[in-house]
Amino acid sequence: SSDESQDDDTAIAALVSKLPTREGWSQTLVLYKNYWIHPLFLKSILRLHTSFKPRHDDITLASNPKCGTTWMKALAFTITNRSRYEFDNNHPLLTRHPQELVPSMEIPRDTNDDLKYLEALPSPRLLATHMPLSLFSRYWLVVYVCREPKDAFVSWWHYANKIGGKEHSTTDGLESALDMFIQGFSPYGPFWEHCLEYWRQSITSPDNNVLFLKYEDMMSEPVKHIIRLAAFLGVPFSTKEEEDGVPDEVVRLCSFEKLSGLRANHTGGTIRSHSMVLDKSAFFRKGMVGDWVNHMTEVMGRKIDCVMEEKLRGSGLVL
Ligand code: A3P
């Protein structure tokens, strides 16, 4: 009932208000179960715990922010809907932002009731989240996309500057952002913990229900990984489709060049992301592997490498 959900909201707000807070990345984050999360997103996550009903055929796209979420949304949407839409004719991606086509579970939408919105989506649902795996209440299929941390860091820094706006004019310098990042203080951070949780699940789960992908692998051999992705999602490409070059067409339609050039993704549009209104182009910057060298010194780069080496040691994960 709405009374119960109001009680929940009150309890959640009380809980969140008692958590440690820290300012950075043009926002204030709270620390919950070892992760730094924006309080609005954390409230949504806690509400999902009590009220979200997962379905057996849900597909969840998970990621650290700035690691290729938008790209993965476009790819998974195109792959799972390829019998419904032709690629060059009225394809939804040509007129709608990938962020709009695949909802992020914990990011409040314009509608007042996000849970009702998720509930109303037809099966099979394609959903996205930045939640750490340990904050899921239940899940079936998860695709996780990870990215080289120096590039992810540089991407975050640019993005934080964009969301900074007037309210948050004290944008952190690159050096101080780097210090925060390697302390584990970044949105949904520590970055490495987030990756490690999904990584461990992907290599140990007997159900084989987490697919772990890397941005760099997908950039260097997109077709190969798109084929893996389709198989994992339960909609493998047929031999005929492969012969006809369908995987290549998916890659082309979802490429940075194609998507960033579309009016729908850059012109005059905005996307609401909690209290902030973002330009649609904020999700497309360079789409490059190794761009960190254009922003950081070798010494700064090594700082991230050292922390990652230490934190990932023994896990089998190399980023
Ligand atoms: P850069 O800032 O390095 O360019 P997210 O979608 O998780 O927020 O990640 C954003 C990053 O992915 C940005 O990285 C963005 O440019 C890049 N990106 C967006 N669309 C892409 C695509 N279709 N292919 C490759 N990279 C893409």
TrEMBL record:
Keyword terms, alphabetized: Transferase
Record carries keyword Transferase: yes
Source domain of life: Eukaryota
EC number annotated for this UniProt entry: 2.8.2.-
SUPFAM superfamilies named among the record's database cross-references: P-loop containing nucleoside triphosphate hydrolases (SSF52540)
One protein family per Pfam: Sulfotransfer_1
Residue ranges annotated for the Sulfotransferase domain, each copy included: 57-316
Gene Ontology terms, MF aspect: sulfotransferase activity
Family, similarity comment: Belongs to the sulfotransferase 1 family.
PANTHER family: SULFOTRANSFERASE SULT
Protein name in the entry: Sulfotransferase
